[in-house]
């Protein structure tokens, strides 16, 4: 009797999983989870394919624009003793998503919010600043388009500041510590502002003591 009940439950769960999966993908495979039909991309008509690509790009740009707006807003993070869910606020989530979609248009907004953090977020360890500062993580994911702006930002921070640490963290994630040091050294030789030069020299010492390789 128990075996029959267990078997019945297995059959029920399997059927439920199949039903749910069917809600997300049709049998032809031409419909994604968002419900957006992609069959036009397979069309033999060049015009139809191009129209679909243009529409998809427009949708992507609109999404990035919306998340940039959210990332730019001033919000009050949930206090550390607030037990409500979600722990992350809309600004934090928007910043993280800009990294997920590699939104290079958002680089300046992310730099403007480089030291923003939600007090409730505990996504990373004490040694991994990307888990604490979402803009740093997003810029690292954006990658090469963010490198020069991050170095420019780095030149504005003193060597012992949190901003300098985050910038160095981003550069090591994108380039690896050795190549990041080389890029900073090039900038040191190029710029004339003495304060910016000293800031970069301090960052260079930090990078020279870092063994971390690039990740993104």
Question: What class would the helix/strand composition place it in?
Answer: mainly alpha
User: Cα distance, first to last residue?
Assistant: 54 Å
Total helix count?
9
The total beta strand count reads 0
Helix/strand order, N-terminal first: HHHHHHHHH
In quaternary terms, these chains amount to single chain
Please state roughly what percent of the residues sit in beta strands, choosing from under 5%, 5-15%, 15-25%, 25-35%, 35-45% or over 45%: under 5%
Number of domains: 1
Overall 3D shape:
globular
Query: How much helicity do the residues have?
Result: 55-70%
Which whole number gives the mean pLDDT? 77
The low-pLDDT segments are: 6-36
| Largest beta-sheet characterization | none
Rg over CA atoms, rounded to whole Å, is 23 Å
């Amino acid at each position: 009797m128990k075996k029959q009940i267990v078997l019945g439950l297995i059959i029920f769960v399997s059927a439920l999983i199949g039903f749910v999966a069917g809600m997300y993908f049709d049998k032809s495979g031409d419909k994604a989870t968002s419900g957006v039909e992609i069959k036009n991309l397979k069309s033999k008509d060049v015009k139809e394919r191009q129209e679909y690509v243009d529409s998809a790009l427009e949708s992507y740009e609109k999404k990035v624009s919306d998340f940039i707006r959210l990332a730019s807003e001033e919000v009050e993070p949930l206090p550390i003793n607030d037990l409500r869910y979600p722990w992350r606020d809309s600004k934090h989530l928007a910043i993280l998503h800009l990294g997920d979609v590699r939104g290079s248009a958002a680089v300046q907004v992310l730099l403007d919010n480089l030291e923003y953090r939600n007090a409730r977020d505990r996504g990373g360890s004490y040694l991994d600043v990307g888990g604490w500062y979402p803009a740093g993580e997003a810029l690292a994911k954006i990658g090469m388009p963010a490198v020069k702006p991050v170095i420019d930002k780095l030149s504005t921070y003193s060597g012992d500041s949190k901003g300098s640490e985050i910038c160095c963290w981003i550069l090591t994630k994108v380039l690896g510590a050795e190549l990041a040091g080389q890029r900073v050294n090039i900038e040191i030789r190029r710029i004339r502002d003495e304060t910016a030069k000293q800031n970069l020299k301090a960052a260079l010492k930090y990078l020279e003591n870092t063994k971390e390789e690039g990740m993104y």
